[in-house]
Amino acid sequence: MIQLPQKHASTGTSIFAIMSGLAQQHGAINLSQGFPDFQIDEQLSTFLEEGVRLGFNQYAPMPGLPMLRQAIADDFKRRYAVDIDADNEITISPGATYGIYTAFTAILQPGDEAIVFEPAYDSYIPNIEMNGARAVPIPLTAPDFTVDWNRVKAAITPRTKAIILNTPHNPTGTIWSKADWDTLAEIVRDTDIAILSDEVYEQLVYDGATHYSVLQHPELRQRSFAIYSFGKAHNNTGWKMGYCIAPPTFTQAYRRLHQFTSFSVNTPAQYAIAKHISSGTASPVRAIMEAKRNHFLSLLKNTPFTIHKPAQGSYFQLATYESISDKGDLEFAQWLTKEHGVATIPVSAFYHNRHDDKIIRFCFAKKEETLEKAIEQLSRL
Ligand code: PMP
Ligand code: GLN
Predict the structure, then answer these.
(1) What is the pLDDT of residues 344-359, one digit of tens each?
(2) N or C: which end of the chain has fewer CB within 10 A?
(3) What is the number of alpha carbons within 13 Å of residue 46 lying toward its C-beta?
(4) One domain for residues 68 and 170
């Protein structure tokens, strides 16, 4: 038997595969893995068909179709008042997961350290370790999941080469304030630490809040890879399309890797998204998702779950279940799927040591009828 090297020894099976698999096996309503269960905008489907018919069927240029990169630059100018050089700062990627891995690979060498805030999206630590580097997890401070900046300062060593952050945050739904960004800037000033800013939920912020992007912070922007996913902005997670925005030297390093791992990304999908973004008539994803969050929160009142804080952003709502069970969160989530037909994500999966505060995550990016059916089942608890 050939023994392959264990470059990914700590990576078990992703919790998203486990819980979606369990949901399917038991015919449960799937509020676990984060994906919408409703149709995409009709005009986006039409643009995809149009792209195929017009002949956008061969390899796109390595960094992405110029029309899509320009559409993104124009969109960011409009929404964030930032200037982005579409030729030298934007690279289209097959999804944000790929973007994060590629950015880490551009930054890290064996022996380096990368700071990760936990709970953390489950690909971060495996990606760091695949590059031979060491993840340094720092817990966010419950109940509001804020960053303890003194802990960050204390964790920095001469080996620290990256800090990854995620706002709006999966799974807690919190968003960073301008003060967080300024503190981060102070801490990394005069270091060679690069920032990886996972902003895949940038469009999904609620209650009149605004997303502050790393691209709006002139000092931090110079040392940052900003990562985005079209899936979250256009309800088409299965297209696996995203992009990376970074200063020219970072973009060059990113593209050196990208050209030999993917080279280019699905051409008709790039055409369709470019047309969709530029149309000015794309459906308002933020308003749609905020209405879903509000509806789900009011429905949850009919269940014994406790909500400590409404999600400020993302498409996830955390809940605790102390009046239902004292099981650990993984066991509880499995039980809920099998016995009550609703799948969720146990938040311990977002900690390297499976730290368990008995919290589960619901995805509310679902049709009203899906949410209502799920609550009907949960109200019998
Ligand atoms: N980052 C976060 C925080 C996510 O929740 C996700 C998953 N949706 C991703 C990255 C990956 O996005 P994609 O599906 O585009 O790979
Ligand atoms: N980002 C999605 C979530 O957090 C899932 C993505 C995946 O399945 N890898 O649920």
Answers:
(1) 999 999 999 999 999 9
(2) N
(3) 7
(4) yes
